[in-house]
Amino acid sequence: MSRILITLTFVLFTQICFSNEIDITKELISKWVETKKLISLESEEWKIEQEVLKDRIDLISSERNSLREKINETESLINQSDTKRTDLGKDNESLKKASILLSEKINILENKLLILLPTLPQHIQEKIKPLSQRIPLNKKNELTLSERYQNVVGIVNELNKGASEISVISEVRSLLNGESAEVQTLYLGYAHAFYCTTKGDIAGIGYPSRDGWVWKPKNEIAQEIADSIAIFKNEMVAEYITLPINMDEE
Question: Which of 86, 123, 128, 175 is deepest in the core (most CB within 10 A)?
Answer without folding.
Answer: 128
